[in-house]
Amino acid sequence: MAKTKITIDYDKCGYKDGVEMDPRNCRKCLGICDPAVFLMHPTLDEHPDPFNPEKWMVTPVWPSMCMGCMKCQEVCPVGAITVEPGESLYTMINEV
Ligand code: SF4
Ligand code: SF4
Description:
Distance between the termini: 15 Å
Helix content: 10-25%
Order of helices and strands: EHEEHEH
Number of strands: 4
Bound molecules: iron/sulfur cluster
Mean pLDDT: 90
Low-confidence stretches: none
CATH topology: Alpha-Beta Plaits
């Protein structure tokens, strides 16, 4: 079985390509995910500026913890998250 894959479309969440959305004003994916798969963090630019909303992003840093509940995908107001459930720590533990 393939590993769980979670992707975020930064054309929808963030400031890429003219889209103006500060992910810090949303945070719905962070709030609804029980195993805390997502992290809100400054971009890894050479000149990170914590006061610039364009320098913030959400990353699914721990997809191995995903339970495959799909709540993040459902709650995202702009449809930026895609979850492809597969093998994760959660499924491995629960298969035993
Ligand atoms: S599918 Fe559920 S467990 Fe997985 S990242 Fe989304 S909210 Fe978290
Ligand atoms: S719920 Fe969607 S729009 Fe909101 S911060 Fe998460 S990925 Fe971005």
